[in-house]
């Protein structure tokens, strides 16, 4: 088999594996609040999330195009298939490490850091598309703060609107409402996160001269959406425990406010074609909701560990990808 074709096939397999892992790694974030408040049973929550992730993944392609061309120009990459394969291996490795320890790390940071690290290892810092790369980093940096603010405002609004409502009745009503917010949360997750694998597969097709435009082929959209949906159906119980209970004690009204706030941020990013970390956004929205209710009610020690993981993910994944590229380059 031709080496370039073999590399492209390996990239496609690894990209779909990344999407699959992303499904069970990040699905936990989308359904953690609804499971922890018992609005949905774990089984029903996962089925709902799998279906809505699949639908969301097929609906948009803007984020995929951003991943394809805004970090590194795929037309300018020499040995591009090896660069992309190294990036995927590093991102998958970091995702599995953080999943094993139950840390809600960012798949987006891992992938973007890995692409940049492998490309720099191959061709130096000049290979990066700095305007696009900085724009993506800004979206990743700003979105958690927006989610924190949105969560705070949403919870404050709910507190005013339902201040005279019987607690039992409001909890029951919000549990029903959470079914809708969990579906919305999973849909927005699919519109943003599944796009990343689509973008990297398209990037590999361009680098291997199998495609000449950044348009996302339908088979890529379908395969990435399917991988995300199947991964979602597996679930991520360790991360559900962290996001759904260790940041703060979540009641139905808190879960609904956090879901709605984070879904708005993620979908807003999707509409302007920017990748964001669903992990960052959802965790930050929960912190904002907790702060609106009672600042001391947020377990800031757990939150600090999550933030530290966010900060180190991009450089560590970049270094891993750079080393992986040098090893793969010996063979290809």
Give the arrangement of secondary structure elements.
Layout: H1 3-36, H2 42-59, H3 62-69, H4 80-100, H5 107-123, H6 130-161, H7 167-207, H8 218-234, H9 237-246, H10 252-271, H11 278-293, H12 300-331
Strand content: under 5%
Taking all Cα atoms into account, the compactness measure Rg is: 19 Å
Oligomeric description of these chains: single chain
What's the number of extended β-strand segments? 0
Q: So how many helices?
A: 12
**Uncertain residue ranges:** none
Mean pLDDT: 84
Rounded to the nearest angstrom, the distance between the terminal CA atoms is 13 Å
The figure for the number of domains is 1
Proportion in helices: over 70%
Q: How would you portray this structure in words?
A:
- The structure is a single chain.
- With 332 residues, this protein is an all-alpha fold.
- The chain has one domain.
- 80% of the residues lie in helices and 0% in strands.
- The chain has twelve helices and no strands.
- The longest helix has 41 residues, at 167-207.
- The model has no long low-confidence stretch (mean pLDDT 84).
């Amino acid at each position: 088999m031709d080496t370039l074709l073999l590399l492209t096939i390996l990239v496609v397999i690894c990209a779909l594996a990344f999407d699959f892992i992303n499904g069970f790694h990040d699905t936990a974030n989308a359904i953690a609040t609804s499971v922890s408040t018992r609005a949905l049973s774990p089984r029903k929550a996962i089925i709902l999330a799998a279906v809505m992730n699949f639908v969301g993944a097929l609906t948009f392609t803007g984020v995929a195009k951003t991943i394809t061309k805004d970090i590194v120009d795929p037309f300018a990459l020499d040995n591009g298939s090896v660069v992309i394969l190294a990036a995927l291996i590093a991102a998958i490795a970091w995702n599995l490490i953080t999943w094993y320890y139950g840390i809600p790390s960012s798949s987006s940071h891992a992938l973007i850091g890995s692409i940049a690290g492998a490309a720099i290892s191959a061709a130096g810092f000049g290979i990066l598309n700095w305007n696009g790369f900085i724009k993506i980093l800004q979206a990743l940096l700003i979105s958690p703060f927006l989610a924190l603010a949105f969560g705070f405002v949403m919870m404050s609004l709910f507190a005013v609107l339902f201040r005279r409502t019987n607690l039992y009745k409001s909890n029951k009503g919000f549990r029903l409402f959470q079914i809708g917010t969990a579906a919305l949360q999973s849909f927005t997750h699919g519109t943003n996160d599944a796009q990343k694998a689509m973008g990297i597969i398209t990037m590999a097709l361009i680098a291997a001269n199998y495609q000449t435009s950044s348009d996302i082929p339908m088979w890529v959209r379908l395969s990435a959406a399917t991988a995300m949906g199947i991964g979602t159906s597996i679930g991520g119980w360790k991360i559900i425990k962290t996001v759904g209970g260790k940041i703060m004690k979540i009641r139905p009204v808190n879960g609904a406010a956090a879901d709605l706030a984070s879904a708005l941020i993620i979908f807003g990013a999707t509409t302007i074609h920017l990748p964001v970390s669903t992990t960052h956004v959802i965790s930050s929205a929960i912190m904002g909701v907790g702060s609106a209710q009672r600042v001391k009610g947020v377990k800031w020690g757990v939150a600090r560990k999550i933030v530290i993981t966010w900060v180190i993910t991009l450089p560590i994944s970049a270094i891993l990808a750079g080393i992986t590229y040098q090893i793969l380059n010996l063979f290809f």
